[in-house]
Amino acid sequence: ENFNFENLSVRLSSAFFDTKKDFSLGAKERETFTLELDKEDFNKLSAGFYTMKAEIEVEDQSTEIEGTIKFEEIKDLQTETKSYGFFINTEIIEKKNNGNTIENTQVSIDKNIISRLFTTLSPEPDITDRSDLKIRYIWERPINPGETLEVKVKTNWFFPLIILIL
Question: What is the average pLDDT across 25-52?
């Protein structure tokens, strides 16, 4: 418009950002907004459409405008396995959802009939499947964006060693 706007105040807000800017706008001028997005702010948001609000105030007049932001779907499930110890063998399986969609995941561990007697599991498995001399422990869980599933399997070989010694 061919009009000078003095003391213009604009506030932009959404699930990704919240910023306010005060400025003056001359005739037929444009104002550009540069926003820095912090990944931690939207790390736990799911993919989809989000509302962006713009509140504009000039002198004693105000208005509100809404728009939509499309948050693209990204699948990123990261698996990390750690194993350490000899007499007390510990295995940690960690699945982290770095994406923005709910991921269904499965973790399975196989043990034999002797080692299972000296094994502790955290958390408790969803399914325990026994076949012959092998036992399979299965965890099936949905993982929300930004969440982690950690399965800890600890086998203590001191107990059978002490029994053998006695």
Answer: 82
Q: Decide if 22 contacts 7 (C-beta within 8 A).
A: yes
User: Which pTM does this prediction carry?
Assistant: 0.68
pLDDT per residue as tens digits for the range 48-62: 888 999 999 988 889
- Compute the Cα dihedral for 94, 97, 98, 103 and give only its sign: positive
- Reference 111, options 82, 134, 87; nearest CA is 134
Closest CA to 139 of 91, 74, 100, 101: 91
CA distance 20 to 8: 11
Distance of CA 109 to the CA centre of its chain: 24
Q: What is the pLDDT of residue 103?
A: 92
